[in-house]
Amino acid sequence: MLTDAIFRALVAVPSLQRQFRKMVFRLPHRQRLVQHFGQELWVDPSELSGFYVYYERNYDDYIFQFLSARIAGFDRALDIGANIGIYTVFLAARIARIDAFEPEPLVLQRLTANLEQNGLASFCRETHDFFGSSSPRSKKALTFQGRAS
To answer: In terms of pLDDT, which residue wins out, 143 or 63?
Structure first.
């Protein structure tokens, strides 16, 4: 993408790169497919996490490295505030069971799309609807078996 190439070219001029970053956040929303620790994720670079995954090519890399080194001894994970699934997808590919909670319906759709992109949606076992679907406080949660099971 052109914005990606411009951002990388401006690495030598940090002040211009900062200005470019501000401009990118104002661009219309758009989805980009990126690779992150062996998983594919649909992200929106105009959102903060999407910006770091798409442009900076890192997003909590030190945490993912830490988890990769220690995850073998675990068989269940809890992701509260799963957002678009950056952690959920990573964990689901490596351990047996994930409980992911995302209260925002539009974000939950994006989480589900990222699970589908990685062949994990078929492992979804149930969706809980807290407070009842007609309630304005309705909240959703996904419980699914990870690929490693």
So the answer is: 63
Report the C-alpha gap between 29 and 124 in whole angstroms: 28
Residue pointed to by tokens 């992701």: 79
pTM: 0.70
Answer positive or negative: Cα dihedral of 80, 83, 88, 90.
negative
Give the CATH fold of the 65-145 domain: Translation Initiation Factor IF3 (3.30.110)
Please enumerate in sequence order all residues whose Cβ is within 8 A of that of 106, keeping only pairs 6 or more positions apart, or say none: none
pLDDT tens for each residue of 94-128 = 888 888 888 777 888 888 899 999 988 766 655 55
- Which segments of the chain belong to CATH 3.30.110? 65-145
Token pair for residue 74? 């675990």
Q: Collect all residues with Cβ–Cβ distance below 8 Å to 71 and sequence separation of at least 6.
A: 91, 94, 95
Residue 83 to residues 16, 37, 52, 88, 134, Cα–Cα distance (Å): 30, 17, 15, 9, 22
24-52: burial string, b at 16+ Cβ within 10 Å, e else: beeeeeeebebebbebebbbbbebebbbb
